[in-house]
Amino acid sequence: QVQLVESGGGLVQAGGSLTLSCAASGRTFNNYFVGWFRQAPGKGRDFVAGLPWSGGPTNYAEFVEGRFTISRDNVKNTVVLQMNSLKAEDTAVYYCATRRIGAGQYDNWGQGTQVTVSS
Fold first, then answer.
1. In Å, how far are 84, 96, 105 from 20, measured between CA atoms?
2. DSSP 3-state assignment of 47?
3. Cβ(2)–Cβ(92) under 8 Å?
4. Per-position b or e across 75-110, b if 16+ CB within 10 A of its CB
């Protein structure tokens, strides 16, 4: 299994930006989809954005379209989630996860990083 480590969370004012990173240790992301999810207090875990590490289209949840950008850094072996124009409702724990290409579900999760947006 790829061990996933998220970083970059914190406190930001509404309208601000944060950059989250998901680093893989132990092996690379080859043959995996990498996704970002979030879970707000008292709510379920929602898909935010994802991409296939080997290349291909990215996809986003409607509620972040145009504000968040997911990308990969091949040199650092990380997946980055750039979050702009943050809103109070973006407050959540953000998780990085992977699923093997051809698999139906994400089955490997990081520990999460807290993002808090003050209004």
1. 11, 9, 22
2. strand
3. no
4. eebbbbbebeebeeebbbbbbbbbbeeeeeebebeb
- Determine the Cα–Cα distance for residues 119 and 17; give it in Å rounded to an integer: 13
Note the pLDDT of residue 2.
77
Of 77, 92, 63, the closest CA to residue 34 belongs to 77
CA dist 109 and 111 (Å) reads 7
pLDDT score of 87: 97
Instruction: For residue 62, give the DSSP letter.
Output: G
What are the residue ranges in the chain where pLDDT is below 70? Answer: none
Rg (CA), the chain: 13
* Separation between Cα atoms, residue 4 and residue 56, nearest integer Å: 21
- pLDDT computed for residue 102 by the predictor: 86
